[in-house]
Design goal:
α1 runs antiparallel to α5 (100-117). It is globular and about 40 Å long. The chain is an alpha/beta fold and 191 residues long. The termini are far apart. Helices cover 47% and strands 15% of the residues. A six-stranded mixed β-sheet has the order 1-3-2-4-6-5, with helices on both faces. The protein has one domain: Uracil-DNA glycosylase-like domain (Uracil-DNA Glycosylase, subunit E), CATH 3.40.470. The protein binds iron/sulfur cluster.
Amino acid sequence: MSATNSQKLKYLSGLIASCQKCPLYQTATNPVPGDGNPEAKIVFIGEAPGFYEDEQGLPFVGNSGKLLDKLLASINLKRQDVFIANILKHRPPDNRNPEPAEIKVCTPFLKAQLQVIRPRVIITLGRFALNYFFPEALISQVRGQIKKITWQGIDSTFIPVYHPSAGLRNGSMLKSLQSDFITIGKFLDQK
Ligand code: SF4
């Protein structure tokens, strides 16, 4: 009998918990591998754990997470319907930006998680997640656009949006996020 998605993701979480490939594990309290439905059709990908995520070992549990919950609710989705992960699995000190070397050594975990889940829809939150898939893309130019992709053998629909933390800081980015979630909701309704 082959392993279930849940078992495979737990195995990856174990590898993440013992990873020392970059220095971030030294200053973090907990690893934050990702959380949600192992059979999800939709995966959200953020940047890196922040203070509360590091404290609880769960993604998007601080203020950005509360906004993400509201945006999900606006299109009739709950956390249990989706899987949420980040580019980095340990918190950068003081929430600084991920460094290229950290992204390079950490993203094989994200890639492995995506290869387990094989989502039909990938929604990136913020520029670091967007640039993992499309290194040259500018989020201000492509946000809210729906694109069919085949990535690592996975046929998926790709929709980049701003990171919720940008929506908390800036009213016009919040409006963009709300409108992009309406786009996501309409797209999902057609499926
Ligand atoms: S951030 Fe990623 S690469 Fe760095 S120690 Fe954590 S799991 Fe390993």
